[in-house]
TrEMBL record:
SMART domains: acidPPc (SM00014). Residues 74-183 form the Phosphatidic acid phosphatase type 2/haloperoxidase domain. Gene3D superfamilies: Phosphatidic acid phosphatase type 2/haloperoxidase (1.20.144.10). This is Lipid phosphate phosphatase epsilon 2, chloroplastic-like. GO terms for biological process: lipid biosynthetic process; protein N-linked glycosylation. The keyword Zinc-finger does not apply. The chain crosses the membrane at residues 136-156, 168-189, 195-220. GO terms for molecular function: dolichyldiphosphatase activity. GO terms for cellular component: endoplasmic reticulum membrane. Keywords: Hydrolase, Membrane, Transmembrane, Transmembrane helix. The keyword Transferase does not apply.
Amino acid sequence: MQEDEMRSPVVRNVTDELKGFEVMEQESFSRDGSREFHSHFLSNGLEHTINNMSKWLVAALYGVLILWKHDAEALWVAMGCVINSLLSVILKKILNQERPVGTLKSDPGMPSSHAQSIFFGVFFAILSMVKHQGLNLVTLVGVVLVMASGSYLSWLRVSQKLHTVNQVLVGGIVGSVFSVLWFQAWYTFVLHAFIAYLWVRIIVVLGSAACCLFFLLYLIKHWLVEEL
């Protein structure tokens, strides 16, 4: 008798069931693995897109602020934003720390200019909300949303391997501190001088215009060229 004929019906049934179970398990693993890969791919693609759009989003928000408020404080914020960005460039050249291995960017990464610019805007928005609206439930919700949005956009620099965690943290801290100092300078003495003296108004307006023009030229030269 052959081996298959010598097996009892019970043994054959158990063997067939085990084989069927193995096939089902392999198919299930294949489907789950494919689904997990597809989800991971979509997640990374979405984060990559949001990260690429973040600089345009921040620039657009500053532009909307100037057009919406079109007052001295908005000009002061715009000037501070550009000076904060220049400070980031200077710190990068001084510290000269490399970006994470594998990134296509070759310029220094400490501090993260994205995180520094984002948290300059985040803290100026938070301080302005508390200053003008007081501390209440609405402003508290606004503070949480603004802080969460800024933190997420900054974290994308790490997830996309463009910066290390320390580079993003330092950028966020520098941007936050500079924002607080810039905000306090405006309400401590610049605003009063702006109202009292014509030459201060001229300096603030011309300085803001020069900073905005410089940023526009930088945007055209670097950001648009990168996109093309």
